[in-house]
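Q: I'm writing up a methods section and want to include an example of the input and output format. Could you take the sequence below and give the corresponding predicted structure tokens, formatted cleanly so I can copy it straight into the document?
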Amino acid sequence: MGKERFIKLLESFWGISFLLTGLCSGAYFFMMAGGFPTSSLLFWSNTIMSPVITVLILLSLIFRSKQKAKAYRTCKISYIAFIGSFIITAKILYPQTVRVSFLVFFAVFIGVLLLSLLQEKVSAKHIYVIPACALSISIGFILPLSQKTEAASTIPLNEPLSQFTTPLKKVSEAVSLREGASVYLNNAAFRVRSGKSTLHIHPLLRFISLSPDKC
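A: Here is the clean output for your methods example:
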């Protein structure tokens, strides 16, 4: 394989990477929940950042088609900054969900992109590289951070809950919360008695698995 053909192959890799990122950003926008207030980080990550990323990807492809080499190189550098920031932040926040295999894959991915940059003889304008990278790093940091769930903090009537310490012989036994109110531990069913009437409440949701790091 000649050097020119190798460079063209790397350039095609860049185009495919930008295109796939744009498609993923669009899918993220339509699949994620909306309706959050502007004070919520989820509003900015689920509603604003996806269109911003898509627009930046389109600009990169436009610069590529118009052969604006310096502007296109700036887009490439900021793209690498975005991917690196996203992966590092995701690994720190979700150490169990983001496995080593993901890190290896994206390390190779970024390595190929950097190799492509080293093959180019065009230099980017530093006056644009710094703000572009700052924006890309910020987006790559905020996206994983916004999906981090908060710790459970709901306390009924703002009073501490009493702890049940009596050992159970069977999981199906009912735990008496107060007179006339019991809960079954095997299926989380709740029973309330009042006179001759009995009310049974069964949960509509059943969680069969939990995220180990709140991803």
